[in-house]
Amino acid sequence: MLISADALMHMYRYRQCSPWAKEAGGQLFGTISAEQILVTAATGPYARDERSRYRYRSDPAAAQHAILAQAESGLLYLGEWHTHAEDHPDASGLDGEAMHQLLAKSQLNSNALLMLIVGRMLTVDSLGLWSVTAERVDQWHLEYIIT
Ligand SMILES: [Zn+2]
């Protein structure tokens, strides 16, 4: 799996580096081929999201709008991202629950959604990546960041 520099830079703008910064997040978009999942764009946060220091939920209407807009440029909805005020982010029970709810509600081409959590640091171990299906949650390890 590859995450484009554009998508990463978008998410990095919302890292929770100050003690009062709230969680931010949104949706991930890209392409899937036999060889590679490519995340090329990240959207959000949106004006009507639920945001606090330790919680983020996208405004469902804004998320749906983003999904339709990205589909027009040929990009698939791949999952969700949000920030954590941690250096080595771990998915909370609520995060897993939220992903399962999204899976149940969404009409997807695939049966899995990605969940990316962006920690405070610029290192690769400050990015947490999970894939979520109805049956299971798997953590993935990103190998490196090209700068
Ligand atoms: Zn979280």
UniProtKB/TrEMBL annotation:
GO terms for molecular function: metal ion binding; metallopeptidase activity. GO terms for biological process: proteolysis. Keywords: Hydrolase, Metal-binding, Metalloprotease, Protease, Zinc. Residues 15-119 form the JAB domain. It holds the Pfam family Prok-JAB. It comes from the Bacteria. It comes from Azonexus hydrophilus. The keyword Zinc applies. The lineage of its organism: Bacteria, Pseudomonadati, Pseudomonadota, Betaproteobacteria, Rhodocyclales. This is JAB domain-containing protein.
